[in-house]
Amino acid sequence: MNPGIASKAEIERMLKNSQTKVIAPLVTLGLVRTYSATKNAVFSDSDLQKAYGTAVKLMKDFLGHDMHIGAKYYDAYGSRMSRYGVLEQVGHLKYRLLPPYTDDADVLCEWIPGQIQRHINQHLGIVPLLQGSATRAELAESRERFVRLIEEHIAKTPANFEIFSFAVIKAHLEKFACKIYRDTRTSAHDKGVDLSTNFGVVYQVKKLRIHTQAEAAQVYAELKLNFDERRLQDGNVILIIDDVSKAVKQYLIDMKIQSINKDEILKMAANFDEAEDRQKVLRIIYEEFRREYSSRIG
Fold first, then answer.
1. Is residue 1 over pLDDT 50?
2. How far is it, in rounded angstroms, from Cα 209 to Cα 190?
């Protein structure tokens, strides 16, 4: 087997398993960098924490932002790395770095940052660039370019669907002096996230395609578990979903549930006549992603 094949495969598996933060690959990067410099394969918990923190800082500098990297350090990280064959426990909160990571340390020091960057770019796309007001202004200047950006990114992940939908609806409602709040974090699966308002309506976002009455009935059953009967009967729950057939949309209306699909979100985005409104959408997107994904390693 070629050098690095086994360890690289495990790191790819770590990245695939990463959700809101890239943790295991950063722990591994910190470990192999330390080993490469010192040839010491035994790490105390404090050594591990220091190596991890240094790797997070390195990746912040490498990426030019801190999204999707670094979560608060826990002493359980050491034992968790055994699932990827990185560490074995040799005492209380003491671990040994194992082959092939020791053998491949120099190669991995160079290779891991680029793989983390690729993974984050796939998940976040243009979002980190929205930090700059000048970039937001440029992207918002053309209505067509703005809508293409929303369309390109909204369906990338469930988190994208939730945040991009929220940003468009928030900017739309604020034109009518209405407020909408996203207090929860994004959902890793299709259970959805709630958006509350100051006018009694609750939006629930689900990245789902609902094309049959049976699927709609299942969603309605979930809504009944999440919301009281009065709110449902008053028509104060609105479902935001990826796609819904015309017949199912009517079925939901008969159940007092309004629905908004991705195409309707895109039409809403296209109706922002002022560049300032389009810039607001992009700012909200960045702020929500930063709230969700920014580094917290305290």
1. no
2. 10
Q: Out of 75, 96, 124, pick the residue that ends a domain.
A: 124
Banded pLDDT at 226 (limits 50, 70, 90) = confident
Do both 174 and 49 map to the same domain? no
Q: Can you give the pLDDT at residue 66?
A: 87
> Shortest CA distance to 216 belongs to which of 187, 189, 188, 241?
241
Q: Is 297 within the bounds of a domain?
A: no
- Give the residue-averaged pLDDT of 215-227: 90
Residues 102, 131, single domain; the answer is no
Interatomic CA distance for residues 61 and 43, integer angstroms: 25
Write out the residue range of the structural domain in which residue 57 sits: 5-124
Quick check: bond before 128 cis, omega within 30? Answer: no
Q: How far is CA 96 from the centre of its chain?
A: 32
> Considering the entire predicted model, what is its pTM?
0.80
As a whole number of angstroms, the longest Cα–Cα distance in the chain is 68
Same domain, 110 and 202: no
Q: Are 19 and 119 in contact (CB under 8 A)?
A: no
Angle between helices 45-63 and 105-124 (to 10 degrees): 60
Single out the residue of 271, 264, 272, 128 nearest to residue 203, CA to CA.
264
Q: Are residues 160 and 286 in the same domain?
A: yes
Computed on alpha carbons and rounded to an integer, the radius of gyration of the chain in Å comes to: 23
User: Looking at residue 11, which CATH number applies to its domain?
Assistant: 1.10.10.10
